[in-house]
Amino acid sequence: MSLTASGATAQTQKNANRISNPQRLLVLTPHAHSQTTIPPFLHSLTGNPVPPPGVQNDPPPNEETSEGPGHQSTATFAGYSTHPPLPLNTKYYSADIPIWVDEIPIPAVSSPASLQSQTSQAEQENNTPSTWSATFLAPPAAEVRAAIGAILILLQKPVSVSSAVPSGEATVERERVREGIAALKTVVKAVADVKRKIEEERGDSGIGDVPGLVILVGSEDKKGSKRLGENFEDASLGGGEDGGLREMAEYGVRWWDEELTGMGIYDFEVVGWDPAGAETEGEKRRNEFGELEGMPRIREVLETNEWAMASSIGDDLDSASGFLEDLDDDRLDLEIGELEREMVGLRMAIENGGGDGADLEGEDFDEDDLKVEQMEGLMLRVQAIKDMGADLPDSERRTFAAKAIRDIMKDL
């Protein structure tokens, strides 16, 4: 009987932590990169292969396609939203996250003059990251912005010019690489503007932060990176010893971190992901700072996000507000008492979660001690509600206590 009751309790808890209408994961990539980034990435992330994309007859002008310059039709993932959702299961919640994919237009790099002549200046100006972001920032897109829970930007990792290339050709190739990187920066800038707008609109709702990742898709060719340091335009950005200039020179994670910082973009984390090593992602490689790398890091960021829709949270809080404001004095005291008991239970769980504490290292003990202190602070706030409300008229006391309890519930 007890096992049945325990199972029912576990199932109830599981259902209570289920997010039935989560926000969406927005996956973005430059149009010219979509064929090499979207299929392998979504397959690795969700475990489901990506079907062949639809074909559009009029590709964004002045862009290279997988068929080469001048090809009149190209496959596109713009607006792709039918991929199986990303299942996330943590000890705090479970959810199936819907995925939205979109492509951001960028001009082709150093296209032949014959191709450029086919494209008017007006057409080029209408197919830029800025025009894409303007669409997302427009008032009609407010509902779309409200549904976005996290943003991933997939960029094909720029390839450094080999030292084996003749000097004349190498100069041209390096210029193409610089042009390509400049175009990719405009993509990140446009997406950062959209991310900032989303967070501003959510304000103090408690779910304002939108995780953002710039994912470099490609291998880290560390054997060939050193020889390019002398040819790199801004070698002074190197960090010194192992992995400093070397990482910078091959346009890797650290190099992009520096570049985004220089652009004033601080809220996008750069992660490298190699499709060729996708089958070994379970190894959970870590960098020199002990942080996860590759797909494990991407999943870690997504799992720590709050995916509940702002509207559902607001509805829950409004319902709680109406319920508490309708309580009489006795029931309000009962509600405060129940909240106190729950907080005591949380405190006991924190104190006992790691055993008797005798074997804890100092650093771990300080972290647990901080959690206990934070819980004690919340309990003092509950007591203050009771003390301050005692001197208020009945009607004001109920309103005051209801608002104070809602504030504490948000903190919890």
Automatic annotation (TrEMBL):
InterPro entries in UniProt: Irc6 (IPR034627)
Gene3D superfamilies according to UniProt: 3.40.50.11960
GO-annotated biological processes: vesicle-mediated transport
Protein name, entry field: Alpha and gamma adaptin binding protein p34
Lineage, top ranks: Eukaryota, Fungi, Dikarya, Ascomycota, Pezizomycotina
Single GO term (MF): protein-macromolecule adaptor activity
Annotated stretches, region: Disordered: 1-21, 37-81
Compositional bias of kind Pro residues: 49-62
PANTHER family: INCREASED RECOMBINATION CENTERS PROTEIN 6
